[in-house]
Design a protein that fits this description.
Layout lengths: L8 E7 L3 H20 L8 E6 L6 H11 L3 E6 L5 H12 L5 E4 L11 H9 L4 E6 L7 H16 L8 E8 H8 L8 H8 L3 E6 L13 H15 L2 H29 L3 H37 L7 E4 L23
Parallel strand pairs: 1-2, 1-4, 2-3, 5-7
Antiparallel strand pairs: 3-8, 4-6, 5-6
Helix pairs in contact: 1-2, 9-10
The structure holds uridine-5'-diphosphate and magnesium ion.
Length: 339
């Protein structure tokens, strides 16, 4: 999608208890944004939109203070903690009403914001999706690095296309965000959905920094939840694997049966007892695994059919900054592009 005049950019930043880093991050992001404004790459009414994902600290107070200091800073506040994916979806959905370009980035700026101008430049070349990709994971712990590698490997085996070493630092044009919003699932796995949407894309590489302050909001249980969501929302391969495993076990049971019959014909029945016990335990275990996996899918169907809201926004200081002005967007060369 080629933009004929300056696009309006919104930088969406999910924040969960980010009090220690928010001020510094806001200044860095604003510095980069204002440079883009002065070089006429984006419109002067471009914004930074912080999405407070139900923080318990003073994150929301800081966001509102920033908004009083400079109208470039805006915010959404969730009624409680819904998770990073929901914060991203909320920010993108609200920003998309007024923006031509949306960039999402973590509040701790571990992902190098200095590649934002290059992302915008790529979008001017007609690229709709610009992925920020870390070129090394040296700043991550051994466990995080290895588990991430394992996750990408497994997802690839399941046939899910992911951009390795890309998290949620990316630029999307408005039409990609519009397409993304048509995916109405309650637990969207954004990293998996975006490559599936298509559109011209590019990758920009950067070195990931350690967190400057505060701590990771992804303890082990949240990481496992995230990985499971990715696997279960994109593939029924695990259930296939169980089917193949079941067939294998049935083949094994058949061979076992023949062997037991031969033993029986020899009158040596006591020997067969251990084999039968082995099969009983083996099959019992297999059935438990199978039932638990089926249960996972049934559980997901259950949550999806309820159609609960993905989030409830308590306060929105972003949209009201536009109320007096006419929304101006979609200065496209291709008028056929639909919203
Ligand atoms: N985050 C969020 N809700 C959550 C957890 C995290 O909005 O429930 C935000 C967090 O504030 C940060 C981003 O998601 O902006 C990534 O979190 P973090 O930096 O802790 O993840 P890590 O870099 O350790 O993977
Ligand atoms: Mg981080």
């Amino acid at each position: 999608m080629k933009l004929v005049s300056q696009p309006r950019l919104t930088i969406v930043v999910p924040c969960y208890n980010e009090e220690p880093v928010l001020q510094a991050s806001a200044q860095v992001l604003n510095g980069i944004l204002q440079k883009l404004v002065t070089t006429n790459q984006v419109r002067s009414d471009s914004k930074i939109l912080f999405v407070d994902d139900g923080s318990q600290d003073t994150t929301w107070d800081l966001i509102t203070q920033l908004g009083h200091q400079d109208a470039v800073f805006t915010g959404l506040k969730f009624s409680r903690n819904y998770g990073q994916e929901s914060a991203l979806i909320a920010g993108m959905e609200v920003a998309n009403h007024y923006s031509d370009l949306i960039i999402t980035i973590d509040a701790d700026l571990q992902d190098d914001p200095h590649i934002i101008p290059d992302m915008v430049a790529q979008s001017q070349q007609g690229i709709d999706v610009v992925y920020g990709v870390r070129n090394d994971r040296a700043s991550d712990s051994w466990f995080k690095r290895t588990s991430a590698e394992g996750f990408y490997w497994f997802m690839k085996k399941l046939g899910v296309e992911l951009v390795p070493n890309h998290s949620d630092f990316r630029l999307l044009t408005s039409r990609v965000v519009t397409a993304l919003m048509t995916c109405k699932e309650t637990n969207p796995f954004i990293r998996g959905i975006i490559p599936q949407l298509g559109f011209p894309s590019a990758r920009l590489y950067y070195k990931r920094q350690p967190r400057q302050a505060g701590e990771s909001k992804y303890p082990l249980h949240k990481m496992i939840q995230f990985a499971l969501n990715g696997i279960l929302s994109f593939s029924i391969a695990p259930i296939r694997m169980v089917l193949y495993f079941g067939l294998l076990v049935c083949g094994g049971a058949l061979a076992m049966l023949i062997w037991i019959l031969i033993q029986h014909a020899h009158g040596d029945v006591v020997t067969g007892w251990s084999s039968i016990m082995l099969s009983v335990w083996f099959l019992g275990g297999f059935q438990l695994i199978a039932i638990s996996i089926i249960g996972e899918y049934v559980g997901r169907t259950f949550t999806e059919v309820k159609h609960r809201p993905r989030f409830i926004i308590q306060t929105d200081t972003y949209s009201k900054t536009f109320k007096s002005t006419e929304p101006t967007k979609f200065r496209l060369t291709h008028q056929t592009v639909t919203k």
